[in-house]
Fold this protein.
Amino acid sequence: MPDLAAAAAAKARGALSPAPAEWKAMDKFSRHLTAAGVRPWVFEGDVNPAIYSAERTQAKEATREKLSAFVAAGHGRYVSLAEQALDLGPEDWLDMTHLTPSGNDKLTRRLAQELAQP
């Protein structure tokens, strides 16, 4: 019987790249929120580091750069993984993309801190 978790991890290690239409939709949505007096923010997500690859790491960095430029242009706030400082360990991951209760607790507490900001 094949190891399904290993197969899923191998597949998830591939490159990811948001399509231009996705960026356009994000820009449109952000402009709509801003016009309504809402300051949007992006809280960077992550996956289990077990599925990191050179391609995924490169794509994540390119996405970070694009998001940083997006918010620098007045589209709200970007909270990077580095700024979040969640310190998620292997015990905080249920699988490749979902957190355990301990990971959820860390993430929820950090989100609450961010939401409490004026």
